[in-house]
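can u pls check wat happens w/ 5'-deoxyadenosine
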Amino acid sequence: MSDPKTDAPKKLFIKTYGCQMNVYDSERMAEALGGKGYVETATPDDADMILLNTCHIREKAAEKVYSELGRFKPLKDAKPDLKIGVAGCVAQAEGEEIMLRQPMVDLVVGPQSYHRLPALEEAAGKGAKVLDTEFPEEDKFETLKSRPKAKRGPTAFLTVQEGCDKFCSFCVVPYTRGAEVSRPAGRILREARELVEAGVREITLLGQNVNAYHGHDKGLAGLIWALSEIDGLDRIRFTTSHPNDMDDALIEAHGTCDKLMPYLHLPVQSGSDRILKAMNRKHTAESYLKLIERIRAARPDLHLSGDFIVGFPGETDQDFEDTMAIVRDAGYGTAFSFKYSARPGTPAAEKVAKMVDPEVASERLARLQALITQQQRALQDSMVGREVSVLFEKEGRLPGQMVGKSEYLHAVHALAPADLKGRIAKVRIKASGPNSLAGELVGAN
Ligand code: 5AD
Ligand code: SF4
């Protein structure tokens, strides 16, 4: 279907905020609307529909949506037919509020109902204000079925699990994404094969609590082993995991499955047992460090990544020093740190009397980020002289240069022929820059 007046395809502009699952969801939304004659456009200026795929994890992320919507006002004024939609976790959390605050919004769709977008778009096209934030019975992935056959880049995300039952006291995810649901392994394998046929060589399995995956009788490890049988799929990654769901089989897979990359994002959030308890994390700093030790025993060169929150209600100077200590002890290759943001409806947000002074929280965040950067840099520098495998993804900025990712997820650039795109080659690292490594090609496979 296309625009009846001009017969040209309708244009869809999607802006994605937040996590990798939103990146995946945006692709699937574009595919769903593709069936209604939409093609993606890189700018909102010529769009017939604008979709914001939003994030509710911290206040800043959620507020961005409203300032962005404000910027589309002149476009809507100039082209009243333009449809504006809000998808993702802000849509789920705020629903109708969004249309009350920003009346030019035509469509609000939650992360569990975007497979209904074609019908919602049709209703919006007839002038209706449309809201769908249900957790429907039908499986959205089954409704969306096969991925398009068009050639794709060498890396892709694939959602295998959604929702979270952990209820960390600061987190909105259990409310916006709902209870844990795992997709059946057979369907994931089918989607993975489709991706590989389209040119994908590396798949990152996504889930809010991905290592609690239970759509395979042997859990996430079972799924990884099954995926590793697919010819042409060379690399498997997964994110994000909870320490309490790292089972023995998954740890073992890190040591024995060649296609599983030596990189693990395993957030601990804080190094203080008092704060971990208040966060409802159900593990201690020591149990986390012991777990890391076991994983490293299986895969000694594993690069560890993490998330931290500073300024959680009641966090003292000593609690914060414990966080600094766990960062030093665990040795992160990368870590992300955030200032605590009180989210409506979460238990921690009730602890108003215990809120940490924002200036103190900012100072702590700066100190933590300096330590993480220093550690990250030291680890990256230690790669110089080593040989890594690089999956080349695209041309670099300099002529003749290609860039890709090492098994440790470092960005690596090297002089290499353009036909190495989508292929894995050995690279010897020669230098370490602020955000990437420079290397020399050793040999392609
Ligand atoms: N405030 C700050 N950071 C948060 N995160 C989740 N909820 C909050 C919050 N309320 C962080 C956690 C999580 C990451 C995705 O975002 O560190 O692991
Ligand atoms: Fe949120 Fe992760 Fe905790 Fe689940 S495990 S509640 S997604 S921080």
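The pocket of iron/sulfur cluster (ligand 2) is lined by residues 164, 166-168, 171, 173-174, 208-209, 242 (CB under 6 Å).
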